[in-house]
Each structure stands twice: as structure tokens, then as C-alpha cells.
Amino acid sequence: MQTINAEGGCLCGEIRFRVNGPLLGSAACHCRDCQHVCGGAPAYVVVVSKSSLNITKGQPASYANTAESGAQRTRQFCGTCGSPLFATDTSFPDVVSIKVGSLDDPSLFKSEAQFWTGSAPPWHLIDPNVPQFPKGPES
Fold first, then answer.
1. Which of 35, 85, 121, 122 has its CA 20 to 30 A from that of 52?
2. What is the pLDDT of residue 69?
3. How far apart are CA 85 and CA 17, in angstroms?
4. Residue 25 belongs to what H/E stretch?
5. Tens-place pLDDT, residues 74-90
6. Which InterPro entries match (predicted)?
7. How many domains is the chain partitioned into structurally?
8. Count of alpha carbons within 13 angstroms of residue 109, beta-carbon side
9. What span, in angstroms and rounded, lies between the C-alpha atoms of 100 and 48?
């Protein structure tokens, strides 16, 4: 299993974090909630165990809602600049999704799957070489 050892933070520098541990997955999520959070694009994430993430500076704000899957989804972001950072989901209680754009080196990302492609707008280009799923992952 690949390991991720990286640092990241928000746009204004108020929040900083370190992630060090097994990379459980990487994906693009095209659900409507992610489109709202990302301004129209999918959310690109790396997935790690919660114990692999250490917030080293600041305290993120959070927002929780019921996702289309029916799970409770909590998104964390910088309360100052609004940068999306992390998300957790009650269907997968031991993991956290880290937004790739918050990594200092986003080139570490390579998508292994694309979820909720059934929600993607027709103008969004979906890479045909990456496995696609019309809904989300099964818990």
C-alpha cells in the first residue's frame, strides 16, 4: 500500500496540517454537494485514516449536512479564507478525505476512481481511463 507523507493548509495560512500514513484511495467526486463546495468542479480527494491526519496550526470551521447517500457528511474549511480542507462521512467513520488543492504539492494526486458521475454536468470532462461510478462508494 502506498504511503502519503505531505503537508498542506488553507489559502491564508491560518490552518496547517500534516498527513503521514497509508493512502487508502484517491478520487474525484462529482456529487452536487462537492460541486457547490468546489464552485462547479468535482472535489479531488485523497483518503487516509483519521489517525494519519494531524492539524498543526489553527482550527477549521465545519459544516454538516445529509448527503444524497443518506450519510451525515461533515466538511471542514478555513473560517477565514473559506478554503475547503477535509471531509468525513458517517458511512466511513475511520477515514478522512483531504482536498487535494489544500496539499502543498497537489501533484501527488492521481485519481483512482470517479464517483457520482451521474451528477456531473454535461460540460464536465470525465477521464475515460479512470473507473467511473454513477453513485458513491459502498460502505
1. 35
2. 78
3. 10
4. strand 25-29
5. 999 999 999 999 999 99
6. CENP-V/GFA, Mss4-like_sf
7. 1
8. 20
9. 12
129 lies in some domain: no
In a domain, 136, yes or no: no
**132 in a domain, yes or no?**
no
β-strands 43-49, 92-99: how paired? Answer: antiparallel
> What cell does 106 get?
497537489
Instruction: Annotate 55-94 with three-state secondary structure.
Output: EEECCCEEEEEECCCCCEEEEEECCCCCCEEEEEECCEEE
Grid-cell match 480527494, residue found: 45
Cα distance between residue 89 and residue 65, in whole Å: 10
- 4 CA to centre of own chain: 15
Instruction: Report pLDDT digits (tens) over 28-46.
Output: 988 888 888 888 888 999 9
